[in-house]
Amino acid sequence: MNIESLKMFCLVVEEGTISQAARLSFVTQPAVTRQIRQLEEVYKAQLFERNAGKLTLSKAGEILYPFAKEIVEYSKLSFAAIQELTGNEEIVLNIGASSTIGEYLLPGLLGEFNRSYPDLKFSLSIGNTPTILAKLENNEIDIAFVEGAVENKELIREKFADDELILVTSPAHLWSSRDHISIQELSEAKMIWRETDSGTRLIVENALNEHGVLGNIKSAMELGSYQSIKSAVEADLGVSIMPRLTVTKEIKSGTLHEVKITNFLISRDLWMVQKSHRFKKSGLKYFVQFIRQ
Questions:
Q1: Comparing C-alpha atoms, which of 217, 198, 220 is closest to residue 261?
Q2: 187: closest CA among 215, 223, 229, 211?
Q3: 184 with 230, same domain?
Q4: Whether the predicted pLDDT of 134 surpasses 80
Q5: CATH code of residue 250
Q6: Same domain, 214 and 249
Q7: Among 258, 99, 130, 261, CA closest to 187
Q8: Per its UniProt entry, which superkingdom is the organism in (predicted)?
Q9: Positive or negative CA dihedral for 251, 255, 260, 261?
């Protein structure tokens, strides 16, 4: 048995077919089959079953898969540790972040951290929270930063910041001369929302519903990104409740105006999420310490 056979086994499980695993590995299907059979000889058990032409894991295969994934991951970590020691290969810290954090918060933090650790390289993946957490679970990234729910209890979740959701208008809006409005006054404006399945929108709607005003608010439009919402608000097409992180520059420059809502505050936690590994990249250890500070 060798690491390559375990890698191939994991790839076949994840891709669902030997042909696709062979294609991705640039080898022939018989070569893949041979590696799987070698593993079956080692474990003296059948790892896959074929039902109506479909490849599925046997009970033994189901037991082996998480062990194989862990062995392959530790093999990668051991290689990275030795390469870091010898300096033969640059170390890359693979970071995943949900959209708001990845686009508005992390770039500044990475720039500041890089000044202290200029030899450490970064790869940043941005997506929605479920996608990023799936990448972490599959060892595609080393650490995740998300603002949504983390349901996997095996992941280590640590709050590293929070973000307030605030009401913004254009400088031309009639509320731009005011510092506060009552929550009932929201019914007088048209709201620009994120798309229906947005986590941020759900938080806002729940908070407004708790105050009994959600049903009275008129909708101007739904847009799929914070940048498009900011442009629409700047054009005075409506108002919006947005994460402060996304509008800090616009408020400072005066292209957007913050209006506080009396006795109404929405805040959400931002999470740093890791897997429980005995061994971690040294660069990851330094980065986690930096974020905690």
A1: 217
A2: 215
A3: yes
A4: yes
A5: 3.40.190.10
A6: yes
A7: 261
A8: Bacteria
A9: negative
Q: Mark whether 35 and 75 lie in a shared domain.
A: yes
CATH number for the domain harbouring residue 22: 1.10.10.10
Q: For 97-115, how does the pLDDT look when each residue is reduced to its tens digit (9 = 90+)?
A: 998 899 999 999 999 999 9
CA–CA distance from 252 to each of 77, 136, 180, 249, 256 (Å)? 44, 35, 18, 5, 8
Higher-scoring residue by pLDDT: 171, 70: 171
46 is in which domain, residue-wise?
3-86
Q: Are residues 133 and 151 in the same domain?
A: yes
CA dihedral sign of residues 124, 125, 126, 131: negative
The answer to whether the CB of 215 falls within 8 A of the CB of 263 is: no
Domains in the chain: how many in total? 3
